[in-house]
C-alpha cells in the first residue's frame, strides 16, 4: 500500500510535535509526515512535496481558503483538515474537508487523518442534530445533569442518556469542552450564557 503523505502546518512546536508523536504511535498504514513550522513557506512546501492531507489551524491561513491553497500549489486532490484550537466561524470550518478539535480523542484523530483521499467531505457525512438533540446540547454545555435536563424537558433520564449517545455518534465529540465549542460555533448558545460553565472546564 502506498504511504499516506501528510503535512502538519503549525507554528507551535508543542502542538505540531504532539500531533506528529501521536500519529507515529498509531497502528496505521505507513505515513510520510512533513512538518511545516513556518506558515510563510506553506505554499512552497506543499508544491514541492505534494502531500495527500494537510492539517492546519485556519487562523494561520488568514483569508486564504483551502480551495485557494489547492489552486496556488497545484495540489488539486489535497484533503484539508482544520485544526480547531479556539472558537472558529462555522463558515470558515465548512470550507475544510474535516475538522480536528484539540479535545478529540486519539482514535478520532486516527480516523480523520487516515480517511481515504476522495471520500465524501465532512458536511455530507455528518448527520444533523434533531431539534430535541440541539436542546440537550444547550443543556449540557450549561452544566446541567441528566436529571436536571430530564426535568427541564419533561422527559425521562433514560431518554436523555439515549439522546446523548446519539449526539456523540453524530458529532463524534466526546468531551464537554468539545461540545461547548460546537455549540458556540453553531450559535446554539451565547458566550454570556455559559461563562461560568467555561470557567469550570
UniProtKB/TrEMBL annotation:
Its domain of life reads Bacteria
Q: Which CDD domains match?
A: LuxR_C_like (cd06170)
Q: Name one GO biological process term.
A: regulation of DNA-templated transcription
Annotated ranges, domain HTH luxR-type: 122-187
GO molecular-function annotation terms?
A: DNA binding
Question: What SUPFAM superfamilies would the database entry show?
Answer: C-terminal effector domain of the bipartite response regulators (SSF46894)
* Keyword field contains Amino-acid biosynthesis: no
Alphabetic keyword roster: DNA-binding, Transcription, Transcription regulation
Keyword Transcription recorded = yes
Q: Which Gene3D superfamilies match?
A: Winged helix-like DNA-binding domain superfamily/Winged helix DNA-binding domain
Q: What protein is this chain from?
A: Response regulator transcription factor
- The species this protein was found in: Alistipes onderdonkii
User: Which taxonomic lineage is given here?
Assistant: Bacteria, Pseudomonadati, Bacteroidota, Bacteroidia, Bacteroidales
